[in-house]
Structures are given as C-alpha cells and as structure tokens.
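Hi P.,

Sorry for the delay on this. The queue was packed all week, but I finally got your sequence through. Input first:
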Amino acid sequence: MSNNDADRPPMPGAAGEKPPAPQYEVYFGRQPVLDRDGILCAFEMVPRVIDLRDPRDPRENQDKPGRPGAALAKAFAAQPVRAALTGHRGWLDVTREILFDDGLLLLRPDRVMFELPCDLECDPALIARLVQLHGRRFRFLLDHVTEPDDSFAKLLPYVEAVKIDLHGIAPDMLPKLAGVMKAAGKLLVAMGVESLEDFERARALGFDRFQGYFFAQSHAGARRVSAPRHALLSLLQLLASDPTVAQLETELKLNPILVMHIMRLANSTSFGIGHKVTTLREAINATGTDRLQRWTQLLLYADGRKVSLEDDPLLQLAATRARFLEIAAMRLPKARIAEQEAAFLAGVFSCVDAVFGGPIDETIDLLSIARPIRAAIVNREGSLGQLLNVMEALERGDWARLDAACAPLAPFAPSEAAAIALTAAEWAGMADRDAESQGLERIED
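Then the structure:
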C-alpha cells in the first residue's frame, strides 16, 4: 500500500476538494409595504429560485433530491437580505413544495410573514402543515385575491392578512369583500396601488397596508415635501455649482426639516465622526461637503412630517437607486468615465418628479442637469439608462424584464444586479440608524 499522499483518495472535506455545486440560485426583488400614513412598515421579498441541476442527468436528481425551500430559507436568512430589510419584517412568497420543507423552521417567525398563493391546493395535509407552522408562531397572508373562491374559503381561517388586487377584482365586489374581511378581523392589504386615487380609494375602504409605487408618482404637489418648490429648486441649483461651506450653510438654514435630518445624520454611527456635533457648520465641516452634498440631494425627498429616513419610502427608493447605479456602473466595462461619475445623481434625480409634480423631463430641464443624466432618466440612453431599467425590474420583481434589461450589459448578470441592489438597500436604510432623534438641533447664527 502506497504511503504517498498523492496516491490516496481525497477525504470528504479535505483541503483542496471542491465544495459541492449549489443546486439552486436564489435572489430577490424588494417591494415596499406602506401603512395608512404612507410610512414603510415591511418589505415583500419576491424570490427567484433557479434550479441549477442538470436535467439531462437523472442520477443527479435521484441522488440529490431538490430542496428549494431549504435554499430559499437559507438565502432569506443570509446577512444581505437581513440588512436590506433595514429592521422591517419581510413578506416572503412561498409555494406548496416550499411550505413542506423544514428549512423554513430556521427562520425567525417575528421577522417573516409567508404569502400563500390563493390557488394553493388546500387538502388535509396542507392544513396540518399550516397548523404546525402556526404553532411555531409563523404567520400567513393570502396573496393576490381577486375573488372569494373555494380555496380562499378554506385558507381564510389560517391567515392573518388578505392581499386584494385592486385592479383584478370586480369593482362592485371590492367594498363588499373589504367589509367582510374587516369584520372577520383580517388585516387588509391593497396591491396594485399605482396612483394617489388608488391609495385614497383603498384607504377609505379600511385597508391597512398598501403595495405599489403611488408614492413615487407625480401628484402635482400632493406629497408633503420638506420645503416649498422654489426653495428646493434653489438648493438643487446651488448643489450643482460646487458651493462653499458658508453658501451651503446659508441655504440649508432656510429649510429646518433638512437641517434636522442633516444634524441627525452627522451624529449617526453611519458617518462615524466619533463625537456629537451641535451646529450645522460643524456638521458640514465634520462630514465633508462631498458626502454632505450627496445626502442633502437625497434629503430633498424627505417627508415634511419629520418621518425617520429609514421609514420614508420615497427617500429610500431614491437612495437605493442612487447607490445601486453608482456600484453597478463601476462593474460595467463599457460604462464611460462620465457615466460612472454621474451614476449616483442619475439615481437621485430619477424620482424627482414625485417631489415637484409635472412631467419629469420638464423638471429635469429646470434643474439644468448634465446631459448624460438627463439622457439616462428621460430617454433611458447609455449604460445609466439601462441600469435604471434593471433597477426598476428588480423593484417590481419582474424577472423577464430583468433578463431583458441585463442582456445588453453582459456579462452583468441578473443575480449580480440583485446582489448589488441588496447592498444599496442596506446603505440607504442605515443612514438614520442610531442617530440623535430628539427633534431640531440648535443652530447657531
């Protein structure tokens, strides 16, 4: 028998042995869930689970039976997803196969709500599984309801919330179903809320949660912004001109809501100054004008009700887009230097019509935005325009649209885009965390 190590078969787990190839690739789209006041209260994490096993090799599938539920649970529990939830609960779409996988038991019940498809086969085995999971304190939501059919009736006793498709249900049935569900003590979730009219109609019917992008649409000034329109325009134009500390301080003092947020940001752990600042000038000097300019641009989206930054859906959307474009543009070999430098601002200003109202091209023209940024936002030209399409597909969880948007950017892959989006979401959500939150700080004259 040879004593030569090279002659010995490799031991399981030995150094140099390749780990087994993953059976599944899992990534997520992230969609905001708002409460009746328009404040972020949860995120739906829309999963894409891709089977990587070779269908031409029957031995692989026989020897290694698939466990998409375990793969989904592992991906959902991973640090990037936890960080992207920014302290909010995650709503997770599941299938029957996934429900029966004990990998779900590794998740924290207080951090997840399972969304059940309304066409789920409802037999005694499924009911027993729901009861078992409910006993472990997991909670369920019935997803995408358009009519109360037999499956709906069987699943209803086991769910805490019912999500109704505003545009898929018959108009005369909506108020009746909403009334019955409220009387039954169910949390009502409106999906497909894409306009202010949708939001107001569902709110009047007693809905508790809202999904859709109505908050990012132009509502002709309906949003309670942090300053008058002319003041925001003046500040934006100043920021575009590389202002001095004194100029920035003078302009910001005209907007107390922005000052409040900037003071909180400067005192937050995310800025890492190490000591408390008490004046606006000190905050500007301590953080640096470049970094402060970035956050001031984002704070133009701040809600006039002094909502915390991590709970403001529009600001989170703009900040996540901005950071996503910045990171992704650096990964694209074909992106020009000018596009890489403009990437953050392209993300920031892609939502600017929600603040000012009116067509976005008119608002962009008022701000004298640089050509690559305008072309990306208005016409979706260049690498930045393509990346905006990628980000919007991720926001919607539209996988076909994501594949199509990534195709011209190859080798930039959908999975890479999804990973960058989670990183960007974490960055956006941590800005206000652990900050001083005792109201408006003192500003010296």
